[in-house]
Design goal:
two-stranded antiparallel ribbon; binds zinc ion; alpha+beta; 91 residues; single chain
């Protein structure tokens, strides 16, 4: 998961689509007998936010630099994650 990013390709953060928090959890395939993470591509339709105490079908993948594009929401007004990233730059 450590793909090299160029200056033109800002870092991205997974954020909760409801509160914009970064404490979102995803699922992974675990070997039932060894408890080891199999490393296979995990199911991508069940995420959990401990702050919202809610499950989500997907999470925001938000850029950490302008224009803070989110792969889910299109504007800062509808995406709490984009709004949080924007504030980090303004303050
Ligand atoms: Zn949340
Ligand atoms: Zn979003």
């Amino acid at each position: 998961m450590s793909t090299q990013t160029t200056p033109m390709d800002p870092e991205r953060l997974y954020r909760c689509p409801e509160c914009g928090g970064t404490d979102v959890n995803g699922t992974a395939w675990i070997h039932l007998n060894t408890n080891e993470d199999t490393g296979d591509e995990p199911p991508t339709d069940d995420y959990w936010c401990p702050d919202c105490e809610d499950h989500f079908g997907r999470v925001c993948d938000v850029a950490t630099a302008p224009p803070f594009a989110c792969n889910y929401h299109t504007t800062n007004e509808t995406c709490p994650g984009r709004e949080r990233e924007r504030k980090l730059w303004v303050d």
